[in-house]
Amino acid sequence: MRRERAQNQDPLSFERRFMEEGFCRIAGVDEAGRGCLAGPVVAAAVILPRGCVLDGVTDSKLLSPPVRERLFDTVLEQAVAVGIGVVGPEEIDSINVLRASLKAMTKAVDALDPRPDLLLIDGNQSIPHHLPQKAIVQGDRLSLSISAASIVAKVYRDRLMERYHDEYPCYNFARHKGYGTREHREALRRWGVSPIHRKSFKGVREWVEQAGSGAQSSADGRSGLQKSIF
Questions:
Q1: Which in 1, 97, 100, 206 has the greatest CB count within 10 A?
Q2: Which is nearest to 15 in space by CA: 109, 126, 116?
Q3: Helix, strand, coil: what percent of the chain each, to 5?
Q4: How far apart are alpha carbons 132 and 43 in whole angstroms?
Q5: Does residue 226 have a pLDDT over 90?
Q6: Are 173 and 197 in contact (CB under 8 A)?
Q7: What is the pLDDT of residue 221?
Q8: What is the pLDDT of residues 14-68, one digit of tens each?
Q9: CB-facing half-sphere around the CA of 117: CA atoms within 13 A
């Protein structure tokens, strides 16, 4: 598998190229949440119909939350198949975030029905899967299928973090979604580490070490928080 940075701005250039080579169902794959201090890594895999046009679909990081939400619904309506893969914070700590991201993408691909016959992966790494695949640097801006996957992964993860906000409101996950903002770091200083924090990450592990245990927190006034839903 060659790794390359494509220059062609046609959002279907990769899909068309591989369809001309005989591939029929091409899945774009991307993840969200890799750089967060809390919560899971979420990946999505999306198969679009041949010649599909989705106005406005691009890298989710370039879109506002309301636009992402609208395009999320559009992708679900138009896609042939959508798969989601989630790897929680405990496993991220156990196997490291890169492996967790690749595992989440593999799980997303395995959730697709019908099955794809080629994968387009955002980034420069292949995933541990038997299917033919191509890694594309900045693929979330260069391939429509990967762009669609980036939106699905981001919105799905944001919604998960909003659920976590209901469980642990003192961290305000609904606002920062687990990223290491000043507000989030101040909440860690004040309330300690919750069960959904990534205890191996810089910015979190210091508080784990200081407390002597990552399982306790005063976040909701109890001796400990509820366990992660993952």
A1: 100
A2: 116
A3: 45, 15, 45
A4: 18
A5: no
A6: no
A7: 31
A8: 999 999 999 999 999 999 999 999 999 999 999 999 989 999 999 999 999 999 9
A9: 8
Residue with tokens 């042939």: 80
Return the domain boundaries, the chain: 13-159, 164-211
- Which letter, b or e, does each residue of 190-228 get, where b requires 16 or more Cβ atoms within 10 Å of its Cβ? ebbbbbbbbbebeebbebbeeeeebebbebeeeeebeeb
CATH number of the domain at 13-159, out of 3.40.50.2000, 3.50.50.60, 3.30.420.10, 3.40.30.10? 3.30.420.10
Lowest average pLDDT, out of 36-45, 200-209, 212-221, goes to 212-221
